[in-house]
């Protein structure tokens, strides 16, 4: 866990999506939205960056809800990939939550299946 946390701190401190490969060669952007970025760091996990928290407590509360949500799905016997969360102090006084989960086969993701469907 400590190695992952150090990689995430490095990612956060050098965050420049356009030039991320220069700073962190193993980084791969998998997708991004209005406030989040999904990326890989050369391991078997995907990470989602959520830079929206004004305090560590708020970020950690969100992370605990993420873990509880995943546990609830597992209790219902729904497959949930291995997952975790990390909180890092980011720029401008914000706290960033990084949600992680083990990568899935890219061909099993819904939008890829739909795009290949002969509908």
Write up what this structure looks like.
With 119 residues, the protein is of the alpha+beta class. It has one domain: Phosphorylase Kinase, domain 1 (2-Layer Sandwich), CATH 3.30.200.20. The chain is built from four helices and five strands. The protein has helices at 2-13, 20-23, 56-75, 110-116, and strands spanning 28-32, 37-40, 45-53, 83-89, 95-102. A five-stranded antiparallel beta sheet has the order 1-2-3-5-4, sandwiched between helices. A hairpin with a 4-residue loop joins strand 2 and strand 3.
Topology:
Layout: H1 2-13, H2 20-23, E1 28-32, E2 37-40, E3 45-53, H3 56-75, E4 83-89, E5 95-102, H4 110-116
Antiparallel strand pairs: 1-2, 2-3, 3-5, 4-5
- Average per-residue pLDDT, rounded, comes to 85
Total E-strand runs: 5
End-to-end CA span: 44 Å
Query: How many helical stretches?
Result: 4
Helix content: 25-40%
Overall geometry: globular
Secondary-structure element order, N to C:
HHEEEHEEH
Strand composition percent: 25-35%
* Helix/sheet category: alpha+beta
Main sheet, how many strands, which sense, barrel? 5 strands, antiparallel
Radius of gyration: 15 Å
What CATH architecture would you give? 2-Layer Sandwich
Number of domain modules: 1
CATH class: Alpha Beta
- Strand order, sheet with most strands: 1-2-3-5-4
**Which fold name corresponds to the CATH topology?**
Phosphorylase Kinase, domain 1
């Amino acid at each position: 866990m400590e190695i992952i946390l150090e990689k995430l701190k490095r990612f956060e401190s050098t965050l420049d999506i356009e030039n991320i490969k220069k700073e962190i060669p193993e980084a791969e952007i998998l997708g991004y939205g209005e406030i989040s970025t999904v990326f890989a760091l050369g391991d078997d996990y995907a990470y989602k960056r959520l830079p929206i928290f004004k305090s560590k407590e708020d970020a950690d509360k969100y992370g605990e809800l993420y873990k509880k949500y995943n546990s609830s799905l597992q209790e219902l016997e729904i497959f949930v990939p291995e997952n975790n969360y990390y909180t890092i102090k980011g720029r401008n006084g914000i706290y960033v939550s990084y949600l992680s989960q083990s990568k899935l086969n890219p061909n099993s993701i819904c939008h890829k299946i739909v795009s290949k469907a002969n509908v």
